[in-house]
Amino acid sequence: MKLSVFILALALIMGIGAPVLGQHEDGSSEFKMALTGDSIITRKLSVYKEPEFLEMIDIIRDADVAFTNLEMLFHDYEPYPMAESGGTWMRAAPSLADDLVWAGFDMVARANNHTGDYGVLGMNLTTKYVAESGMIQAGVGNSLAEAREAKFLETSKARVSLISLSSSFARHMSAGKSRDNHPARPGLNPLRYSTTYVLPQEQFTSLVDTARKLGELNGQDGESRGYNAEEPNKLTAFGKNFTVGDNLEVLNKANDQDLNEITAVINNASRVSDYTIVTMHAHEGEKRSEPAPFLHDVARAMIDAGADTFVGHGPHALRGIEIYKGKPIFYSLGDFMFQNETLDRLPSDSYEAFGLGENAHLADWNDERYAKDTRSFPTVPDVWEAVIAEPKFKDGKLISLKLYPIELGFGKARQVRGRPILAKGELAKKIISDMIERSAPYGTKIRYENGIGIVDLD
After folding, report:
1. Cα–Cα distance between 318 and 118 in angstroms, integer?
2. 3-class DSSP assignment, residue 220
3. Whether residue 63 has pLDDT greater than 80
4. Domains assigned to the chain
5. Secondary structure E strands in 129-191
6. Distance (Å, rounded) from C-alpha 304 to C-alpha 125?
7. Residues 429 and 422 sit within 8 Å (Cβ to Cβ)
8. What is the CA radius of gyration of the chain?
9. pLDDT, tens only, 275-291
10. Neighbouring residues of 282: CB distance < 8 A, sequence distance ≥ 6
């Protein structure tokens, strides 16, 4: 045996130089993430050369791991559109997966309200093209167990796990379990929740009376349903639950079974990886900029289970940041790309919804949907403003958190807007000021410095 081989064998036997969790070949103990929100991509990224754009791309590429929520399906129209979509039937050219890789992204979330726009085939084709691009993806599968699974990225510095889930989705998109020899239902990783509407006594009594007069409380054979005199403050009618309270209120509660199953996956992933990212698509909230209260409980439960960061997206706006037990919670990072106006095709359902005939095309649909840019998304600046979050960890501890403001071209032509570049000047300051205001309720302090936001971790 050669001496060098003998020394190596002896070292391994003694444990010298053996790899341990969190210690990788380059010896670095710092690990930087680039985290973004929704990517609704329909146009190439790699053709653009503006300095503000390329500077932004360098931020993503410079990270040890870069993440975005892929709110898009990739296929060539092999599948048919489902009767219900996430609002718009999303589809783009499969080659655009490579543009995300060009931009520097390593990991994508797949659980969102557009996962099932084109059924199981559309979902699986997207999985195929994303896998071929080399990106890690989580949040969908051919069964509930597979959709819930963590997926892993291997880097020279750390092993990173990703868990993707959604609370906003059409029912047919939710993955299911196998039982009694039924095949499992393919779909996304769901976090279901219940909703109860709280009404003052007078309004509640009026609703009970209305429901009774409309026959809503009449079951078969004259039996009463939805209301029990022994529980006079509870009502189930019109497919919703109501109760009595002092003020009008909407109460949401996460499904315990879903929460327990998801946190068990997180706990396992956190013990076989160095860093765990949990990402959730959630539209819920009375205001676009404020999460529904139950999302606070969900995000904190994910951190308690072992997540190192929680990344929210879905409302097409920025929401606040919370530092919980030393870990960052981003309730929404807004839109990284918002190119839903430059889809190639739409199903007939889209045109029929606006009374458009056979000779109408995409531009006509856009004009009708947005009243020629006088309502909805084109009129809301928040939709076109976001940040790239850059948390940096050392030995598993968060040591810095920077926020790079980006803008997506509010007010520009629809064939231009939707692509991100770094925001500069007063707009950059405005975006960070919004984050300062929206994060204040969580006790998070952010300062604007040299064109970016810096979160105070002390």
Report:
1. 28
2. helix
3. yes
4. 27-191+255-340+380-455 (3.60.21), 194-251 (no CATH)
5. 136-138, 140-141, 151-154, 159-166, 187-188
6. 35
7. no
8. 24
9. 999 999 999 998 999 99
10. 166, 167, 168, 291, 292, 295, 312, 313, 314, 315, 332
